[in-house]
């Protein structure tokens, strides 16, 4: 059993690993991976690959396979959301963070599984990947932070092998922008998406939040996903298949 918490990529990342055995090496590799991702993909670091590409110091042919994959994901979700989700906004530099976090955490979860880990919860600032059950017959319980009360949760979800991501304004203010207008997103307070992987959950949550009220139906219509959305009128919208903890 292993528990570790580190501040990486500007947020706390925690791992609760319940498997017996020595997983020290892969856990070290996971947190080294997060530090590497931060160094290479942060738009806030002048020497990162993202910043160098944005300044024209690197051509597309010179980019790493990882960054090419991230940019392809950004383009896919921009198209899927009709432009509400964008990694590059007019007047701003390239910022793929809305994809990078989910992509990086999912890659880390895959690293753990590849080394034999079967039961863990990996939490990056509220975006979560789970595997297995911490106790027989009992799934992981993941709290969704209340959009207005920092010390409260608005729901507790059950999760076994899957991912949960939440986009809201409570951590960084109105930082999510509707790429279609260039203005801060309005109409929703919190968007939580449950999916099979965190790349999907995180990108869809961000895109739906950026879309505003129309994002409710849009997100609910995504295949193999469940949603929990709180709008600006404090109405709660959720899909029938959402697994609420009893």
TrEMBL record:
Keyword line: FAD, Flavoprotein, Magnesium, Metal-binding, Transferase
Pfam families for this protein: ApbE
Superkingdom to which the source organism belongs: Bacteria
GO molecular function: metal ion binding; transferase activity
Catalysed reactions listed for this entry: L-threonyl-[protein] + FAD = FMN-L-threonyl-[protein] + AMP + H(+)
EC number: 2.7.1.180
Swiss-Prot/TrEMBL cofactor(s): Mg(2+)
Name of this chain's protein: FAD:protein FMN transferase
Matching InterPro entries: ApbE, ApbE-like_sf
Source species: Amycolatopsis vastitatis
């Amino acid at each position: 059993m292993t528990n570790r918490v580190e501040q990486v990529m500007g947020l706390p990342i925690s791992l609760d690993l319940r498997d017996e055995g020595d997983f020290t090496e892969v856990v070290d590799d996971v947190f080294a991976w997060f530090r590497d991702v931060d160094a290479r993909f942060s738009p806030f670091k002048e020497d990162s690959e993202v910043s160098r590409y944005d300044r024209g110091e690197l051509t597309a042919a010179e980019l790493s396979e990882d960054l090419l994959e991230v940019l392809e994901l950004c383009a896919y979700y921009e198209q899927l959301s009709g432009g509400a989700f964008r990694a590059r906004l007019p007047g701003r530099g390239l910022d793929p963070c809305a994809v990078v976090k989910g992509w990086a955490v999912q890659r880390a979860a895959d690293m753990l599984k590849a080394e034999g880990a079967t039961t863990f919860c990996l939490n990056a600032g509220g975006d979560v990947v789970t595997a297995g059950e911490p106790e027989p017959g009992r799934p992981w319980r993941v709290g969704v932070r209340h959009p207005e009360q920092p010390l409260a949760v608005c729901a507790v979800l059950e999760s076994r092998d899957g991912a949960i991501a939440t986009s809201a304004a409570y951590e960084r203010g109105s930082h999510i922008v509707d790429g279609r207008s260039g203005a801060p997103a309005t109409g929703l307070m919190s968007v939580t998406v449950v999916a099979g992987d965190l790349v999907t959950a995180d990108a869809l949550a961000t895109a739906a939040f950026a879309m505003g009220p129309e994002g409710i139906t849009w997100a609910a219509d995504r295949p193999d996903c469940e949603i929990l959305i709180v709008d600006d009128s404090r109405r709660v919208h959720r899909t029938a298949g959402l697994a609420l903890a009893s």
